[in-house]
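re the bet — no i am not wrong, look at it urself. input seq straight from the record:
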Amino acid sequence: MAPCSHVHARAQSRWITAACILLAIPLAQCGKAPNADMLAANTQPAGDTFEDRFPAPQFKDRFPTEKESLVPYQRTAAAAPAPQKPAPSPVRVASISPTLTLPQPTEREELTTLVSLKSSAFPYFGNNPRTDAPFLNVGSGDHRGHRSYGGRVYWQNETYNDSRVLMHVPESFDINKPGVIVVFFHGNGATLERDVRDRQLVPQQITDSGVNAVLLAPQMAVDAADSSAGKFWQPGGLKRFLDESAGHLARLYGDPKSAQAFASMPVVLVGYSGGFLPTAWSLDVGGATSRVRGVLLLDAVYGELDKFASWIENNRSGFFVSSYTHYTRPHDRELMSMLRNKGIAVSESMDGPLRPGSVVFVQTRDGITHRSYVTQAWTEFPIKEVLTKMAATPALRLASVPAQASR
C-alpha cells in the first residue's frame, strides 16, 4: 500500500473509533462507518425525549377524580398591618390515653336517624287479635304474606319486614329538664324517610315547637294500604318499645346516663289515618298507660271507639284531641256521643288551652285534604301546635317525671 493510502486508512480508523465512543455505539460495530439511521437512533433515544421527561400539564390533572375531593381555595383579602398581638396562650396537648368527650349542650346538633328495634311493629309472626287467626295467612314456608281487609295480599319479606324506627332529638333538647317522648304512628302507604320525615315534616314540627321533646316513629306496613299493628297488638307492646328505645335515645343524645330518664319520660301518642289501630291497641294493652300524657288523632277515628273511650274515661289527667275531615266525621261524632253519655265534657274548638282531662274534637274546613293532614289540619303543623299548647299548661308540662340523669 502506498504511504499516503496507509496514513489515510489509519486516520479514518481513528475517526471511526472516536465517533463510536462519542455516540455510544458498541465497538463491535465500529468496523463500519455509522449510517444516518444509526446516528438518529442514538442522538434521540425512544422514550427519552424532552416531552417524555417534562410532559405538559393535562387538564384532567387539575381536577379531582370522583373518588377524591377538592378543597376549595380560601382567598385572603389584603389587610392593613395587624396591631401587636398579645402573647399566644399555651398550646393544649392531647392526652395520650383515649378519652370519651361528650358534647356540651351548646355543641349539640340536631340528630335524626333510623334505628332497628326488636320491639318495633314488624316483623310480626303472631295472631291477629281480632280474629285470633295467624297474621301471615297466605302462602307457606319462607314465602308468606297477609291478606288485608281490602283483599290484597302483601308479602312478609316486602311489606312486614322493616324493623326500623325514625328517632329525632332536637338540638335544644335538655335531659335535665322535664321532657316528653312523641310516638308517631303513620298512616297507610307510607315510609319513614319519604313521608314521615320529608313530606309530613314530623321531626321538624317537633323541633319547631320549642318543646323539650324527642320523636319515635316506627315503620308500620311499608308503603301499603294496611293498618296492621304488628307487635303493638301484643300486651305490653308499647312498654317494650319504649324500654328498648331508651338506650338508643341516650346514645343519640350523647349521654349514656340519660337512658334512665328516657325510660321514665311521659309519652304523647300521635296517630294519623291508619295509625289509629296501633294507637288504640297501645292505649288498651300497651302496658305503659301511666306514662301516656296525651293523644292526638289526625283524621284517624276509623274504628276502635271503645278503646279510645275507655282510655279517656280512665285517664282524666291526660288530654285527648281528635281533628277530622268529612271522611271520619261519623265516627268522631259517635265517639263524642259515647263520651257525653259518660258525663265527660267535650269541646269542639282548639282555641282554648289544653288542660289535664281536656277532650277536644275539631272538624276542619272544606278543602283540607286527607293526604296533607299532618301538615295542614285546623292549623298549619298541628303536631307543633298541640305540643306548644301542652307546654303552655304547667299542670301538663310538669306532669313529666323529673330527669334523673346528669352530665
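see?? The domain at 107-397 is CATH 3.40.50.1820 (Rossmann fold). told u. also DSSP finds 13 helices and 13 strands in the chain. so pay up
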